[in-house]
Design a protein that fits this description.
The complex is a heterodimer of chains A (449) and B (346). Chain A is mostly helical. Chain A has 18 helices and no strands. In chain A, helix 12 crosses helix 14. Chain B is of the alpha/beta class and 346 residues long. The chains are: A mainly alpha (449), B alpha/beta (346).
Chain lengths: 449, 346
């Protein structure tokens, strides 16, 4: 019985009006963000025209007027009259930019090592896998030996052969562990014991079973690697992006551990250690990298007997590692100082000794704070390695320069540099993005705000 | 007291190292070291067109590289037993001094200072370079003396820059130098009309010209305003090694003089009556003894590397990007009015 008459006053809100048309949609966004006032509008116009100009020029140079197929730079010039890029030269030299003078038929070894490293580290990103420390430590400690043998080839000494076999066994362990986890076992250890039937036969036997399994794996790996016949490729032939990554990769992976040790040493209460670490850090931090490289490569052999001819690449890598460690030490020290004194005192009050306090309480917190700095340093280091071109190591930059001096491609200097810049951008940008991801996932309360 | 003893210890260590190092290097000649090592360590510069070029397949070639190949052929009978050390000019002499390189063959000008004060010995000259000017043909300039008040592109911090200033002052030309750090930028500035002329060693002018979008519009002026004799360099106080490097070069020059090339050498040796050619290529006599190499050393050089003229043609000649004319230049044989002259093989 609805008796609603016209007299009844019922409050009915009017439907709200749509927002003024000039504040919504594309137009609204533009007005708000780009044309908020005369100054904003001016900035927008100037900015957009600048971007458009650069983009247009790049398009004209790099795509519209570019030559993709030619046999010499002269052929390119005949077409472009100098107004377009000659990508034909870059693609001819691509192999050189990537591998330097590494022989074509042996380049699979470099690729293989890269793939092995990627596969080795992949379990890092599998959510189910527990033994991340095993993955990281095994790769950092033994992969370099495997890679060195693959890259260098030739007759390997007994030590290197053993380390290669250990590396292969650990690699298998990492992946067997992954397999075991996905098959439902808590860990590879349990899987091995259960499958071999020793799980319930006394704990003291477990150790021997596991060691035996590792031993069998090692023997198989050793036998397998001794069948390899790799042609020797001396380090003088290494080059291109490959060399850049070798130098910076070793530098980067050694920087953090040695930096932590130096930083702890500098804050140590033991005077000898403290003085040594401080002197080391200050000495190498106050000298430019190029000076250290010069000292290592050209000055040091002056003091050595003639018979000793250290490999140039080894000298360079040692120099880069020392330099990187000195910088990293100060970053770590900054991180340590950012941790509240209460944390130290609380840890000590719990009865933890120095190393437990550092590894369980202080370092995990400090490292989180330091992520942006550490990655910034890594990126800097990667770019600094181009300095090795000055002392005659054919990294990607020097290969880029060399390609423009080749008789066939004489005069090609812009294109290789553009290409090199693009390569560095991709690598550094990935590192930067990964660090932001790390900050979000493990940064916790210290993450980006 | 402590400091003193530490310092003393360090100094003692250094001295001990130097002492142990010295006799070893004095006893063993470079030739013995090279022979026992099994390859030659040859220092080149970072790639430069014509002189030492790296190809996209990773092979070295070039006019200066041929000197190393010649020495390798003389020692090993194989021109490619070479480890190339390609370093920037900043470290070229240290790399010689510290024993890293056996010989240096890289557009290095022979000067008194370098020969006497750096522990180096210059062997001989294989290329007479000199600073010159390049202009646009359209400018109508025919002599460097007409460059009055001109702007000239030049690399900074080089003797090139100093030579230009000297030349300008001596001749009252009032040249305005436009200096550059980077050679590519310098060349591009010149191409786009940023300077009236460009100055550099004439061989470098040739490679600058080869980079231009249109190579036909330039002219290298006849004047040469500096002397740049280039040739291989070895460490001081190793006469046997110096002799070998020097005579490897002379063999290539002499072979050209006698008309012996890589193509006809077997025929010439079989047919010749010239006793000097017979001595040179080891058919008669034992000229190789003093050099400490195989009797066929010179034969191997010419057969495997070629004579001087062949190498010039291959890397500097008219069919190459360098395109430096040889006739009438100091780099012609002495029989053709040039300066290249080999002492007799006797």
């Amino acid at each position: 019985m609805a008796e609603t008459t016209q007299d009844d006053v019922v409050f009915r809100p009017k439907p709200s009006l749509p927002p003024p048309p000039n504040t919504v949609g594309v137009v609204g966004w533009l007005r708000k963000n780009l044309f908020g006032g005369p100054f904003d509008s001016l900035l927008t116009i100037v900015g957009v025209s600048l971007i458009a100009y650069v983009a247009y020029s790049l398009y004209q140079y790099g795509i519209a007027n570019a030559v993709w197929e030619a046999d010499t730079y002269r052929e390119c010039l005949d077409v472009t009259k100098g107004n377009g890029a000659c990508w034909a030269g870059v693609s001819t030299w691509m192999n050189g930019y990537m591998y330097g003078r590494y022989p074509d038929v042996e380049q699979w070894r470099v690729n293989l090592a890269g793939v092995v490293l990627a596969v080795w580290l992949a379990p890092f990103w599998f959510p189910k896998i527990k033994a991340k420390i095993l993955v990281g430590m095994s790769a950092v400690l033994t992969f370099p030996f495997l890679a060195a043998h693959l890259f260098l080839g030739g007759e390997a000494g007994l030590f290197l052969q053993v380390m290669v076999a250990v590396a292969m066994t650990l690699f298998a362990t990492v992946w067997l562990n992954v397999g075991a986890s996905y098959l439902g076992y808590p860990s590879l250890r349990v899987a091995l014991l259960r499958l071999s039937g020793f799980e319930n036969k006394g704990d003291h036997l477990h150790k021997y079973v596991l060691l035996g399994a590792f031993g069998v794996g090692f023997v198989i790996a050793f036998a397998y690697q001794s069948t390899w016949e790799l042609a020797a490729v001396p380090t003088q032939n290494w080059g291109g992006l490959f060399l850049t990554l070798v130098i910076s990769g070793i530098g980067i992976s050694s920087a953090l551990p040695s930096g932590i040790i130096l930083a702890l040493g500098r804050r140590s209460k033991m005077p000898v250690i403290r003085v040594f670490c401080t002197a080391f850090i200050e000495l190498f931090r106050s000298v430019p990298l190029i000076t250290i490289l010069f000292m290592a490569v050209t000055m040091m052999p002056l003091f050595l007997p003639v018979e000793i001819n250290p490999d140039k690449l080894v000298l360079v890598i040692v120099a880069v590692c020392i330099f990187a460690a000195a910088y990293m030490a100060e970053i770590v020290r900054g991180g340590l100082q950012a941790i509240n004194k209460g944390q130290y005192e609380a840890a000590q009050a719990m009865g933890l000794n120095y190393w437990k306090m550092m590894t369980l309480i202080i370092m995990p917190q400090a490292l989180k704070v330091m992520i942006p700095n550490i990655v910034g340093n890594f990126i800097g280091l990667l770019k600094d390695t181009t300095l090795v071109s000055i002392i005659g190591l054919y990294d990607i930059l020097l290969m880029a320069k060399a390609s423009g001096q080749d008789g066939k491609w004489l005069g090609m200097h812009t294109e290789p540099f553009l290409f090199t810049a693009a390569v560095f951008f991709v690598v550094c940008f990935c590192m930067s993005k990964y660090s932001q991801h790390l900050e979000r996932t493990i940064g916790g309360g210290y993450g980006r705000r | 007291m402590k400091k003193v003893s530490l310092f003393g210890l360090g100094a003692g260590l250094l001295a001990a190292l130097t002492l142990t190092a010295e006799p070893a290097s004095a006893q063993q000649s470079t030739l013995d070291i090279v022979k026992s090592r099994g390859h030659l360590r040859c220092q080149l510069g970072t790639p430069a067109p014509g002189w030492y070029m790296l190809s996209d397949s990773g092979q070295w070639s070039g006019f200066d590289y041929e000197n190393c190949r010649a020495v390798s052929a003389a020692i090993f009978g194989d021109p490619d037993k070479i480890e190339v050390q390609s370093v920037t000019s900043a470290v070229r002499f240290t790399a010689m001094a510290n024993g890293e390189s056996d010989m240096l063959s890289r557009t290095t000008t022979w000067t008194l200072f370098r020969d006497t004060q750096l522990g180096l010995d210059f062997t001989t000259v294989d290329f007479y370079d000199g600073q010159g000017f390049m202009v646009l043909k359209d400018a109508g300039v025919n002599s460097a003396l007409e460059l009055k008040g001109a702007t000239v592109c030049v690399a900074t911090g080089t003797t090139t820059e100093l030579n230009l200033a000297d030349y300008s002052r001596t001749n009252g030309l009032d040249i305005k130098p436009v200096v550059f750090e980077d050679s590519n930028v310098r060349d591009n500035t010149f191409f786009t009309g940023g300077c009236d002329a460009i100055t550099n060693d004439k061989s470098s002018l040739a490679s600058t010209r080869a980079k231009a979008p249109d190579t036909t519009i330039f002219k290298i002026l006849p004047e040469t305003i500096s002397k740049e004799p280039l040739g291989p360099v070895v460490r001081q106080n190793d006469s046997q090694w110096k002799d070998l490097v020097m005579w490897s070069l002379f063999a290539m020059i002499a072979a050209e003089e006698y008309g012996v090339s890589s193509a006809n050498i077997d025929k010439v040796i079989a047919e010749t009556t010239n006793p000097e050619i017979k001595r040179m290529f080891g058919v008669e006599g034992d000229l190789n003894k003093g050099l400490g190499v195989d009797p066929k050393w010179a034969y191997n050089i010419i057969k495997m590397v070629g004579n001087y003229g062949e190498n010039y043609e291959e890397f500097m000649g008219e069919k190459t990007v360098m395109n430096i004319p040889r006739d009438g230049s100091p780099n012609a044989l002495w029989t053709k009015g040039g300066l290249l002259y080999s002492p007799p093989f006797r």
